[in-house]
Amino acid sequence: MHRLIAATLCFICVPALASSPGTANPASDAPEHRVDARTPLSEAPSYREALRLWRSAEDVNGWIGAHFEYDTARAMQLSETERNKGDGIAIYAPDAFFAAPSGVCVDLARFGVETLRAIAPQSNPAYVMIEFAPLSIAGNTLRRHWLVTFERNGQHYFFADSKRPGYIAGPYASTREFIDEYARYRGREVVAFREVDTYERRKRALATRQPGDSSRP
Asked: Which of 9, 83, 156, 167 sits CB 3.0–4.6 Å from 78 for a disulfide?
């Protein structure tokens, strides 16, 4: 099982998707709502076959909604508190995640980005790293959250979110517009956010810096 070492935590195409139902528990990145049963699902016996069958974010999204399970223990291992101890934690490669789809936000985001890059590179998929005001759970500090953005017809969409598996948010005119809405949904202050090409700190390039954000890429 191939894994990379992470330096950081965490149907038919339609032109618009409705707002996510309800509000979220701010103390967790675990799912609040499961996929709507009406969301079409394209199953595949292996990741290689999925890459052959899937054509769009909707295909990836349907599979995520049906299969993703959140791993709370892993979230604690990938907390900022644990990362500051200096031990690197491996983020699941897409084929490994497909075989055992349990993990946390960054595992799911990697699966979404790399899969969409393979099947629909024209959609310009990228990571969105959100830095919330820090939250402490069981002595572990949690602040970063990861999901995926892609483009279609000049608009921005967001998915592969551990909080809303099987849900595509959009369209939005900008990532800033999405972030403002997402902060309200999560009930947490967003300190900063970035659109980046990779989840790995050593490769990250700053794409969006908010006023007052002194963090480094």
From this structure: 9
Separation of alpha carbons 216 and 209, rounded Å = 10
The encoded tokens of residue 136 equal: 């402490």
CB distance 127 to 199 below 8 Å: yes
**163 vs 208, more confident:** 163
In the prediction, which pLDDT does 77 show?
Answer: 85
Task: Write out pLDDT tens, residues 6-17.
Answer: 333 442 232 233
Residue with tokens 């800033």: 176
The per-residue pLDDT for 32 is: 80
Instruction: Tell me the pTM.
Output: 0.80
Cα dihedral value 168, 77, 5, 164, nearest 10: 0
Give the angle 82-189-172 at the CA atoms, nearest 5°: 110
How many whole angstroms separate alpha carbon 75 and alpha carbon 84? 14
Contact predicate 134/215, CB 8 Å: no
Q: What confidence category does residue 216 fall into, taking pLDDT thresholds of 50, 70 and 90?
A: very low
Q: How far apart are CA 147 and CA 170, in angstroms?
A: 13
Asked if 13 and 155 touch (Cβ cutoff 8 Å), the reply is: no
Q: Which residues, at least 6 apart from 159, have a Cβ–Cβ distance to it below 8 Å?
A: 57, 60, 61, 64, 112, 147, 148, 150, 167, 168, 169
* Average pLDDT over every residue of 129-149: 86
